[in-house]
């Protein structure tokens, strides 16, 4: 696979969900982890022929979790229309006029603010070592990284895990949940929607927005949407765009709960590899 910026987080956040009003359309970036940090240039791998054969079986499996498909399709079309009229043009303008170094700093800043949420969820999931890693990332980036603008934690090879309350609820037993497209916020499930409500109560980003105004949320959303621009081409060839987004979202969320990377088609796997020779990741996951 071709190498790209190793610090770029590719996850459902960049594909099938929105953050604070930015519809994150675009698909191939759902790979890897689901959090925030610096963004680089995505490289779009070709979708292999084998994936075309796997898609019908995948859709059939997830059809059972989508009993409200009529509503979901209508809401998906509404969200996409809103994106084309508002969010995508704004994100393109932001990308054109803002230097890449400044954009990376903004992404790093918001990414680091997510680490306390990751730490809390890893503790609730019974993974204290990963919680400690999240705390270590936050502390190092907040100090040596000048408030999180730079990302020395990645250079120090500290694991950059992702976690949210939807994932935590699943680990507590709420594993199967109906698919539900949220207005503006996009693809979700009932479980993940409930998790978003809790996330907003504890997220430092939302705390800053409440304290300093909507400008924080606006910048966060624009930054998130701009990070998905280069991934949009993957949707253009989709026979059924709704099903592609739905199945990708549900498959990725399921694979956040179990190690099922060997079950994913190649086009849902990361198009980059990170070598960490002296770090036993399994010891962190225990």
Automatic annotation (TrEMBL):
Annotated protein name in UniProt: VacJ family lipoprotein
Signal peptide: none
GO CC, any one term: membrane
Transmembrane segments: 20-38
InterPro entries: MlaA
Record-linked Pfam families: MlaA
A GO BP annotation: intermembrane phospholipid transfer
Family, similarity comment: Belongs to the MlaA family.
Keywords for the protein's UniProt record, in alphabetical order: Lipoprotein, Membrane, Signal, Transmembrane, Transmembrane helix
